[in-house]
Prior knowledge:
- The complex is a heterodimer.
- By secondary structure, chain A is an all-alpha fold.
- Helices cover 73% and strands 0% of the residues of chain A.
- Chain A has helices spanning 11-14, 21-46, 49-70, 76-99, 102-114, 119-126, 128-142, 149-160, 165-171, 176-192, 205-224, 234-251, 255-269, 271-274, 294-310, 315-328, 337-350, 354-368, 370-383, 390-402, 406-419, 423-437.
- The radius of gyration of chain A is 26 Å and the shape is elongated.
- Helices cover 31% and strands 35% of the residues of chain B.
- In chain B, strands 2-5-1-6 form a 4-stranded antiparallel β-sheet. A two-stranded antiparallel sheet of chain B has the order 3-4.
- In chain B, a hairpin with a 2-residue loop joins strand 3 (55-60) and strand 4 (63-68).
- The model of chain B is unreliable at 117-124 (pLDDT under 50).
- The A-B interface holds A 144, 146, 192-196, 198, 200-201, 204 and B 1, 3, 86-90, 92-94, 109, 111.
Amino acid sequence: MALESPEAGDPATAATGEVTPSVHDAVDEVYRAESRRVLATLIRLLGDFDLAEEALHDAFEAALRTWPREGVPSNPRNWLISAGRFRGIDRIRRRSRLEDSRAEAEIAHQFNLETPDGADWAEWLDDDSGLVDDRLRLIFTCCHPALSPDARLALTLREVCGLTTEEIAHAFLIRTPTLAQRIVRAKTKIRDAGIPYEVPARAELPERLDTVLHVIYLVFNEGYFASGGDGLTRPDLSDEAIRLGRLLVELMPEPEVEGLLALMLLHEARRPARTTPEGEVVLLEDQDRSLWSAALIEEGTELVERALSSRRFGPFTLQAAIAAVHVEAPSVAETDWAQIVAIYDLLLRIEPSPVIELNRAVALAMRDGSEAGLAAIDALLDAGELADYHLAHAARADLCRRLGRDADAAASYRRAVRLTTEASQKRLLESRLAEVTAGP
Amino acid sequence: MRYACLLYLDAMELEASTDAERARLRGESDACETDLRRSGHLVAAEALESVGAATTVRVRDGRSLAVDGPAIEGPEQLTRVLVIEARDLNEAMRLAAKHPFGRFGSIEIRPVRSDRGNAGADAG
């Protein structure tokens, strides 16, 4: 291993050669900071997800053995990549001897093509752009359209974020073996179908990037709008999504990538005010705005302004712009609803969807009065697509209640309750239902 | 890598189309496959008669049973089979998307196994 150049050893450990806490901590620290980047590069060098994961393990084991004796190398990442590659190739050699001697020549051929040797190799490793590309390669491969949407999500959280299979299964309320199976199938498809480990060509980039952004946003939403259960671990998913968003902005600062990060940050800023300490939902109009995170709002607003000024933005940026209008208002009444309706109109032009129409109808009710909003929602419900969407009935019920049409409101609250699976939202709707049926 | 592209068309739509429309589709499809052959991507291409001409054979308990029609009934019929050579799935998808059948029906891309079960091919 050419790159195992030891630095001046840690005096506390060099003498004994035991894994003392300080080196152990250092390895842990390096694992947290670098393991995903090292994995991303090993997948490219070894051409296989499972092999790269084994090699990553081997490399950290080697670090635990070597670093106490020789000290933590000055560039731990390169050390680990080099050690992982060496052990990965060793594993292929051993495996291929058992299976087919012809494979040996093939491997040699493959690795000569892929990596320069000797001194070039060290220089090449130091070229940071190559390594940055590997993380992008990993993201685009995990979010490849030839994988099922479920698989993209699971694989991204597993490989890019480094969550364990148990953690992902727990967060999505599915059994661990089911999730593990999903990941195995996805990796098998990547191998058998020949999904390449690469950032897509320029012509395909917009569409492929869109798939990546949707995966990230799905992860965020699962953490932000818990779709079921008690949602105790859900904020972790939002954190992971924001981390992914930041990474993608760093690697590929496209306007729409910034727009998505802005959208997530502006939602996240409101999290502390969204629920009571007991976990009950607090609606926007009742939220204590002093609880909103000023730092996240500032960061999100800056990002959304930058994305908007590029004039190459898409739906995520527009949604972020709407969130930005909300967070800059001192109250619901003082919110610039005219601007929000205008942005929804823009959004509908590039991405027509009944859910966006519903949101626009709610904004319209704020701009032009409940009567106008109700007419728009009824038209949407008549069209049929939102008939089973609990928020459509909840929104209708709220407007009827404001107009004093209690019987109408009660009927809509009942439908909304029936269609809601998440516990705290259900309780909120039930309390509203009690209000309108209690009588004067 | 080698990929089989299974080209499906909607049977109802195909029947409803005019002779001129069908001739145009055939023309576009031939042109596309000629391009693929020239660029060295096309290994083989076969056009199939309609499912009306299909016979399905199954052997059960040593007895051979033949029935009229395709093995799997569905709104879309397998009408053409291409075998292409592509660097990876991304290139295979790019090449498949050029075929006019993609606009009217579906193109299923299946990797051809390069190990056993493909003794005739010289891939490797």
